[in-house]
């Protein structure tokens, strides 16, 4: 089994319920193709570096997936026609980093405090 980290960026005007529907939709596709989701992270609404389809912000959702390559082909085929998504990216990894949560609000406040000292 291969390990993948897959990130999608939804449009900035997507409501929380639409984001939840996107997560459920892609979770079902992964499970239907005999894949396993190890972890799903909602990174929230963040600024984009440049405009993508006239959007300045996007809602980031990150999946850690265990499965074969046909899962990724099926995911990307569905994502390429989904109007709610701006971009998607899949990276094959050797190991998952399940401990670090890079976009949590708590960590960012701790970092600010450490810079003040």
Question: Would you mind describing this structure in some detail?
Answer:
With 117 residues, this protein is of the alpha+beta class. The protein has a single domain (2-116), classed as 2-Layer Sandwich (Alpha-Beta Plaits), CATH 3.30.70.60. It contains three helices and four strands; from the N terminus they run βαββαβα. The protein has helices at 16-32, 69-80, 105-116, and strands spanning 2-11, 36-52, 55-67, 85-93. The chain has a four-stranded antiparallel sheet with strand order 2-3-1-4, covered by helices on one side. A hairpin with a 2-residue loop joins strand 2 (36-52) and strand 3. The termini are far apart.
- Low-pLDDT runs of 5+ residues are none
Structural class of the secondary structure composition? alpha+beta
Q: From the 3D coordinates, which CATH architecture would you assign?
A: 2-Layer Sandwich
Strand content: 35-45%
Number of strands: 4
Please tell me the total number of domains. Answer: 1
Q: Strand count, sense and closure of the main sheet?
A: 4 strands, antiparallel
- Give the strand order of the largest sheet, numbering strands 1, 2, ... along the chain: 2-3-1-4
Q: Using the alpha-carbon principal axes, give the shape.
A: globular
CATH topology, by name, is Alpha-Beta Plaits
Cα separation of the termini? 46 Å
For this structure, what is the CATH class?
A: Alpha Beta
Helix content: 25-40%
Number of helices: 3
